[in-house]
Give the backbone structure.
Amino acid sequence: MSKKEKIQVELEISTKSVNVQHAFCQNGHSLIDPSVKINGFAAIKVKIRAKNQEGLLFLDPVYGSYNNIEKGVTTPKGTIVEMFCPECDVSLTDEHEVCQVCSSPMFVFHLPKESIIEGCLKKGCMFHKLKIVDGEHQMKRLFEDSTLESFL
Ligand SMILES: [Zn+2]
Ligand SMILES: [Zn+2]
């Protein structure tokens, strides 16, 4: 009776109450920087490269909010940036996805429980996607709680 197969569900999130509390590069380094707060929450810190500039980008951890802070670089709207882990320099570009809106490359952050968050690397394009990949009973709990808190 119990199905053990993994199920994958993509959720459309429009609420502003969801904030990412844990995000990792593919090597498991935390991208959360508690010393920088945006909207009262610890920001997601990544290294960015755009043309020949390099700097830091602090991403707004609140899903659907884009009060990002650039440090050391100023990228005009429409620039496609590259993101790297500040710890190990691994590229955060998702090689398997492109933005559904503008066809630019996407970044991927790993969340706990094998979930991921993806976003467009073109500045000014707001396209983001949250993918919850998890087992059956956790999905059930997700819907019962009607909160994503435990996944993020
Ligand atoms: Zn890393
Ligand atoms: Zn886009």
Remarks:
- The longest strand covers residues 41-50.
- Residues 25, 27, 29, 85, 87-88, 90 surround zinc ion (ligand 1) (CB under 6 Å).
- The chain is about 5% helix and 40% strand.
- The radius of gyration is 16 Å.
